[in-house]
Amino acid sequence: MQLYRKYAPQSWSEVIDHKHVKSAVSLMKSRGALGGKAFLVTVPSGIGKSTCARLIAQDVCDEDNIIDLDASGLTPAGVVELERSLRTLAIGDKPGRAVTINECHALRKDTIRQLLVTLERIPAHCCWLLTTTNLGQQVLFDGIDASPLLSRCIEFRLEANRYLERFAERAMAIDETEGLGGAAFSEYVDVAKRTDCNFRRMLSCLEAGELFRESALAVCA
User: Which of 104, 124, 203, 213 is most solvent-facing, going by the fewest CB within 10 Å?
Assistant: First the structure.
């Protein structure tokens, strides 16, 4: 199993910073107000958009009741049919339902128009989650007015560079756990800078042994 999958956060406590998202979601959850909403998570690639969407969905419903959709294959008729299927409560400890559309910039324009209608009437036990990269958002709104969709969504914009050292600290801890470490902290910071804090790419660099320092490990031993 690749490191980025092995160490994917399983709870909000494991998510590196993004404090404003954690606080907002925690507040909505405490009020029982996560359902009946659509969320748009916009973020540079590799710093947690799918993770945050998954954790929001898991706060609403059991994992078996999360529907992951292929944005490019979603049609207006598919949205209508899906909306019908979401009307009833699910079976499980959490009777909610959640729909995630990752890389939503691949949505067809006619599907986006249907979504505008659907997102106006989300049942209280459901939530919709759309994710894309910063560049993807430009593609998503190319040639259309962004306002109607944005007005129907709670938008979370995630940043990475402000948390650069925290990403480096997490990568260093994983590296040492996996026996691939030995480098100085500054070298992990350099990797974070070089990859624009794309954590998947950072962990790929570590897995390739870029920061393995056998001599340093020998000294520590």
Answer: 124
